[in-house]
Amino acid sequence: MGSLVRYALLLISLLASLFGVPSDQAQDLRERDALCNENGCFVVYFQRKTFLDSWRACKEKGGNLATIKRQEEADTIATLFSSVDLRHSRTKVQVWIGLQRQPRQCTASRLLRGFSWTTGDQDTQYTNWQREDSPSTCLAPRCVVMGYSTSADEQPNNFKWLDGSCSVPVDGYLCRYTYKGMCHALWSEGGGNALYTTPFELLSPLLTHVPFGSVATVPCPEGTKDEQSVLCMLREDGSVGWSRDAPLCSDPPISQNWCEQDNGGCEHFCREAGAHYYCECSDGFQLGEDGQSCELADVCQGAPCEFECLPLSDGYRCACPEGYMLAPDERGCLDVDECLQSPCEQLCVNAPGTFECRCRDGYRPDEEGECEDVDECANDPCEHACENTQGSHICHCHLGYSPLPEDPSQCQDIDECQIAGTCDQMCVNYDGGFECYCEVGYELMPDQFSCRKIGEEDGQPASHTDWPPEVDETLDWLTDPPIVPGSDVIWVTRAPQAELPFSSEKNSPTQKPEEKDDDTEMGGDGHVPDWFESDDRAELEAVPTSTTPPPPTSPALTPTSECGNSVQGDREQKQGSSWLLVGLLVPICIFIVVMVALGIVYCTRCAVQPRNKNTTDCYHWISGAHDKQEALFSHISSG
Q: Where are the membrane-spanning stretches (predicted)?
């Protein structure tokens, strides 16, 4: 019995060497990892591989990635997974099946959407897509996985097809092996169930259909023969069956010459190995997928493939590494621009055979590769206050300060006293604020801006300001504003007030009394910005108050006091000049009016033209002239 077991193990190792299965890639299949019927076997391998590596692993054992073209095949796969062990306590797996699509081969009108089976055809009567096809996936090679889960929530998606990147390894792959025929299972002859060794290295007593080329080891009852081994082979009549018919344990053991009959079915050479045999090929040939036929070896020698050549039964096929796709000539490889599919959240940089995701300035990748905002404020880049924003930050200055134009992260003091209208009389600037003061004989009103004479009633501020009104020199000929008797109108000329920073958030000492009722220290909505909440808040709130000792009221420290005294004198001088100007302008205006009237009369007289005269018009008849002459003569004579 021990010798037969050794022979079986030797045959398995020989078959593995013939099919070129590396020992480091072999997986110990469990009894329920495969399910066979009259059409072949489906076998699931739980090894993480890419699509190309999975296809190669199936080919090396004489199979191919699974094709599911009919409902019956889908039912067989469902039966297989219903009893399979998912390994490592997993509840969900994804396995490759034999569907792939080259770039720009989308065909939404067809059942397979442009995908092809690894067998080279697109025929099918069955599909089981999990979701609709996306046009954005047509630009890169796509391969199909089938999902399976033991979780009740995900079972509706069991055995659904989902396309994805061919270069991403998944949990496993599903192979399909087809043969010339299948042998029926052997009945137990009293020593136990037969153990079957298949060409794809499965040891199982559970098979109901045994693949062609498998060896069955039948244990015999005690007191009879040793365990018997038979081969599933091609018989003389062309059918596939066991090398010996049952019963196996009741007949006397006979020596079997496997290669004696029809060369064991081998095309070239048949080699016996004890109770087993195997086929070999001549030099320059290699064993075919059926384990008996021989085909030319190394078909890729001299093949014009740019990267990789895959031998096929009818020739070869060129393949490209990950990140490339096969060129139209089916020999060269073209780089796939993965960035066309927008795989990155922000920036994508394509490179030969791959791509790289990057983040914009102000962002950095997290553990999952997604871009997250960098909090620049954590490094205290601002002198006063910092507000973080998406991808950047903003520096703010405390009340009474403004950002430096050349470096917005630094702050400089605002000299409010240089702004016209800041104070009624005198102004003293200090870092972060200012204070208003009054001349001798005046006191500061509660609005911290206006001055009134000491002893005057509340609400009657001083009527003058410490800045003379700006008067255009070209208007010196105008008279002063009219004085309205008994009117309460006060003529005021005030320089424009520049807008102070943070005027909308905090009342400054220069606000008018009527604006003081608008609300409290911040804006009308009472909202305090996040960046404004800092340890310096107490300092900020103290800006408009008198936190510094009041300066002396001497003229040396109040440079605006002399200016205030001179303004009143200038006003009196201007009032006298105005009356003098009125005295000069009135006679001038009267003279102008008279001259205008004379001009009008003159123009009117000149406009009357004399009519034309003749000689007779210069003479006229005088009535009574003769009587006057006689009277004259009589007077002379009487005298």
A: 579-603
